[in-house]
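Hi again,

Forgot to attach this to my earlier email, sorry! This is the prediction with S-adenosylmethionine bound. I've pasted everything inline since the attachment limit keeps bouncing my files.
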Amino acid sequence: MPVTDVDGRPLRNLRLSVTDRCNLRCQYCMPEEDYVWLPRHDLLHFEEISRLVDVFIGLGVDKLRLTGGEPLLRRDLPALVRMLADKPGLRDLALTTNGILLGDLAPELRAAGLHRLTVSIDTLRPERFKQLTRRDELPRTLAGIEAGIAAGFTGLKLDMVVMRGSNDDEIVPLLDHARALGAELRFIEYMDVGGATHWSMERVVPRAEILERLARHYGPIEELPEEGSAPADRFRLPDGTVFGIIASTTEPFCHACDRSRLTADGQWYLCLYAPRGTDLRGPLRAGASDEQLADLIVPTWRQRRDRGAEQRLHLRQRAPLFAAEELKKDPHLEMHTRGG
Ligand code: SAM
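Structure tokens for the complex follow:
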């Protein structure tokens, strides 16, 4: 029997942040000058991660996504992939990355058994990339995507956060680029998550507007049937090109959300917007058995009522979720800690 929450949503999908560090400073995620990082000795070792994953798999988790921060900054990541890839019961092992280090790591990740890759890319213009991310890394990002394809990863996804006045004039060029690579582009609405301290509703380009603009360029767009709990609504252009839109800000999908998040230091969060998580590192390091860990996880999930993005939708005045000062006091509130 799957473990379900109050709304019948199963515990199925775990996003595993392996580091809170990042080699970019994207405006929508890390716009501040400095950050408070997780203490190194708190970071879970690979054996500890693997142990927790076993417990989660035993409770019904069958999809795992490695994220961060930038997950490829975690030393020896392919070794962790190797430990996770063959676990019985795991249907899907994916990685979300900015692609900068993929040029070096793609073949090793593939050989280690990683199933799928998602690469974040918000612009194809070098100057704009520099401005959006505060790093001059577009060439390595593009080369990383190519390296992923060359290493044999199929079903590649590219994620673009669309921000009005920043990169929304590139929705067509990025879709063309993804199509040329045989990748599926997903447009992500700019979200008011922790860390997005410069967020405002004016800068969100809603799903409806993205579709309208694309239809003006490409012609009629067909909506594809829903795929269970997947966050992206999927569409098809007249030439058959498929793309997605993740409309977490204007049309959230909380009703179907089966995701939870484990931070690199072993805090478990039931929602991207949740103010608090459950400490799994403490009990793990204190010698808890698998059963004792499961006894922490199961009741917590059963009581889950979180519908963070929907609640934000009903606010009359919508502003950034947390101020920079609050984030400094608790870095767990940050998107780059929680794992996007
Ligand atoms: N470093 C990796 C990457 O760049 O993909 C993984 C971590 S990143 C936090 C994961 C995803 O979160 C990225 O696709 C990023 O675009 C998204 N993200 C971060 N802040 C966001 C925001 N304010 N709104 C929407 N998406 C956001």
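The longest strand covers residues 92-97. Residues 22, 28-29, 67-68, 70, 96-98, 120, 159, 161, 188, 190-191, 193, 196, 335-336, 340 surround S-adenosylmethionine (CB under 6 Å).

That should be everything now.

G.
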